[in-house]
């Protein structure tokens, strides 16, 4: 049932002593289904349903659920955001909280924007402030130490607002590639900044405490610096603060300042969110002509109940996290296997048809998930912060303030043996460095099946795939090369188009890297950033092929 790669991953971290994958899925299903009992539902039936969708690899929850369900401290959420205030006590309190979250398998996002700039006076000691970037190093070092004892490596996101006086230092800090390896960095971009860039105006950097202007900088110079650094190193990403906050379902509770580590989940201070993903490669209709939407609907409904139950069965690492999470009951159902689906349907990822399908799928999933959340609300009550939320004057009671998120699915897609999230295939054959150095090699089974079915799997083609991870240099027909185009062969605008299409129908955000060929210029990166903003994305991350020394994914299987 499971691939060799899946077994390697499961054995390394997920399976307990003597546990088989079947037993793991039962453990998770039973533990989560227990919530049905206190909501007056049928626990046994729910348990079987959850087992079936997980064991059938139609749906998988995020890694912490698979790892921790049934444990004494069953911390099952992947995503957290913690507030960082401008005092030494607060900064170190939050660091402690982050360490506890990492230990339990969660990733943390922070905004460092409230911290006073470097060189500012500290009234209590008459000393000089060291600035937000200095504390990033402290957080990074702590994360590095905690990873030893944690269920998995702690990941962090740091956001700094574009109008913070230390923004240039933040943008360029990773030029030294030895630092902040446990952090993803994103600049918190405002509409005002993007307008200043468009009009080539100067832009004010303001003191976060006093609001006074510290310096004026040409907006475009700052924007170009971000593009140049992202071109060089893939970072920083951009996080569009105003776009994100326009979609805040509970503005009466606060604003979004940062997302979780891989950017797919903006959260309020202390909120956590559990994610899960439907494997679209398992949703192809029997005639192979499109999606089986009835089946997809069934899986989505069960997945929503599952994730809502996780909230009740969860162990929360901090009282503040329990309180914030239980107030909004956010869940993040998403997709994986999208690239596999396109290949199975013979549609190029870089095509209008594919982009429309991405939008259709997410529109359908969000609508079905919302309906299920409303059904749950009818039985179990709406989320406690429902009064004052955007739903109060629109669709009425729902159980969850958000229902959809598109996660990277870095590990669960390996377990499900499908393409990750909404990414195109990175290579048609690849080796991966995972879990601290092991190399897993494989040739994509969807690609093999596609070629085989059409009688195109010649020895030459197989050889090309193994050597180059691509069919670019083969004699295959143009259409076939389009369908099997890999991430760097697909034009960057198509990456943005899928990101924007998915975002339009996703409550939370979408994790996706815009992969760029090696030859693009920093100006091309700036154009991608602008395009992502204009098309309504909540954030954007680029990666230029070959720009980092050690890549997570290496094209082609070593011959
Ligand atoms: N995450 C983490 N450490 C990791 C990988 C992921 O803390 O090593 C968190 C992080 O918040 C990320 C989220 O898990 O955004 C989801 O990542 P992904 O979908 O790749 O996780 P999976 O469930 O596939 O393991």
Task: Report on the architecture of this protein.
By secondary structure, the chain is of the alpha/beta class. The protein folds into 2 domains: 414 residues, Anaerobic Ribonucleotide-triphosphate Reductase Large Chain, CATH 3.20.70.20; 141 residues, no CATH class. Helix content is 42%, strand content 15%. It contains 20 helices and 17 strands. α2 runs antiparallel to α3. Bound molecules: uridine-5'-diphosphate.
Low-confidence stretches: 550-559
Structural class: alpha/beta
| Through-space gap between termini | 27 Å
**How many helical elements?**
20
Ligand inventory reads:
uridine-5'-diphosphate
- Shape designation: globular
- Biggest sheet statistics: 10 strands, mixed
What proportion of the residues is helical, as a percent range? 40-55%
Q: β content, as a range?
A: 5-15%
Helix and strand topology:
Layout lengths: L3 H11 L6 H18 L4 H13 L3 E3 L1 H6 L10 E4 L5 H16 L3 E5 L20 H15 L9 E6 L5 H6 L10 E7 L1 H8 L3 E5 L6 E6 H15 L3 E4 H6 L11 E2 L6 E2 L4 E8 L13 H21 L5 H10 L2 E6 L1 H7 L7 H29 L31 H5 L12 E6 L3 E6 L1 H9 L5 H10 L9 H6 L8 H13 L8 E4 L5 H13 L4 E6 L8 E3 L4
Parallel strand pairs: 2-3, 3-4, 4-5, 5-8, 11-12, 15-16
Antiparallel strand pairs: 1-11, 2-11, 6-7, 8-16, 9-10, 13-14, 13-17
Helix pairs in contact: 2-3, 2-11, 3-11, 5-6, 9-20, 11-14, 14-19
The structure holds uridine-5'-diphosphate.
């Amino acid at each position: 049932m499971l691939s060799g790669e899946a077994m390697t991953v499961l054995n390394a971290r997920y399976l307990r002593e003597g546990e088989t994958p079947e037993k793991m899925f039962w453990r998770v299903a039973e533990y989560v289904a227990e919530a049905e009992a206190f909501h007056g539902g049928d626990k046994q039936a729910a348990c079987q349903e959850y087992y079936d969708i997980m064991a059938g690899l139609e749906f998988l929850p995020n890694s912490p659920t698979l790892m921790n369900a049934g444990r004494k401290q069953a911390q099952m959420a992947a995503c957290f955001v913690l507030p960082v205030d401008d005092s030494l006590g607060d900064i170190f309190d939050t660091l402690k909280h982050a360490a506890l979250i990492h230990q339990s398998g969660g990733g943390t996002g922070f905004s460092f924007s409230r911290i006073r700039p470097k060189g500012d006076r500290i009234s209590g000691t008459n000393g000089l402030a060291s600035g937000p970037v200095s504390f990033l190093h402290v957080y990074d070092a702590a994360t590095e130490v905690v990873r030893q004892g944690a269920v998995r490596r702690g990941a962090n996101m740091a956001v700094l607002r574009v109008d913070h006086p230390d923004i240039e230092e933040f943008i360029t800090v990773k030029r030294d590639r030895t630092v902040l390896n446990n952090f993803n960095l994103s600049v918190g971009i405002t509409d005002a900044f993007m307008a200043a860039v468009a009009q080539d105006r100067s832009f004010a950097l303001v003191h976060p405490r006093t609001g006074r202007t510290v310096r004026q900088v040409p907006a475009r110079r700052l924007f170009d610096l971000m593009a140049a650094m992202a071109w060089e190193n893939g970072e920083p990403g951009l996080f569009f603060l105003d776009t994100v906050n326009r979609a805040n379902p509970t503005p009466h509770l606060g604003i979004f300042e940062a997302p979780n580590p891989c950017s797919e989940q903006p959260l309020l201070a202390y909120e956590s969110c559990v994610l899960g993903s439907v494997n679209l490669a398992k949703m192809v209709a029997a005639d192979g002509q499109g999606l089986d939407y009835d089946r997809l609907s069934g899986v989505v409904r069960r997945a929503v109940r599952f994730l809502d139950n996780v909230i009740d069965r969860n162990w929360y690492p901090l009282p503040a996290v329990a309180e914030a999470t239980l107030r909004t009951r956010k869940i993040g159902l998403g997709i994986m296997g999208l690239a596999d689906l396109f290949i199975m349907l013979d549609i190029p990822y870089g095509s209008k048809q594919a982009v429309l399908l991405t939008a259709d799928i997410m529109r359908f999933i969000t609508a079905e998930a919302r309906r299920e959340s409303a059904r749950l609300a009818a039985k179990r009550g709406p989320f406690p912060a429902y009064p004052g939320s955007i739903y109060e004057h629109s669709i009425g009671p729902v159980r969850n303030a958000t229902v959809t998120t598109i996660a990277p699915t870095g590990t669960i897609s390996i377990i499900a043996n499908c393409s990750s999230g909404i990414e195109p295939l990175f290579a048609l054959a690849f080796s991966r460095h995972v879990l601290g150095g092991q190399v897993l090699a494989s040739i994509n089974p969807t690609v093999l099946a596609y070629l085989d079915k059409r009688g195109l799997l010649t020895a030459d083609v197989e050889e090309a795939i193994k050597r180059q991870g691509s069919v670019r240099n083969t004699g295959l027909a143009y259409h076939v090369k389009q369908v099997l185009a890999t991430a760097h062969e697909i034009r960057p605008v198509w990456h943005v188009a899928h990101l924007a299409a998915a975002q339009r129908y996703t409550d939370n955000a979408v994790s996706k890297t815009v992969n760029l060929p090696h030859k693009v210029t920093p100006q091309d990166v700036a154009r991608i950033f602008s395009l992502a903003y204009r098309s309504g994305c909540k954030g954007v991350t680029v990666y230029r092929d070959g720009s980092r020394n050690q890549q997570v994914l290496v094209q082609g299987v070593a011959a």
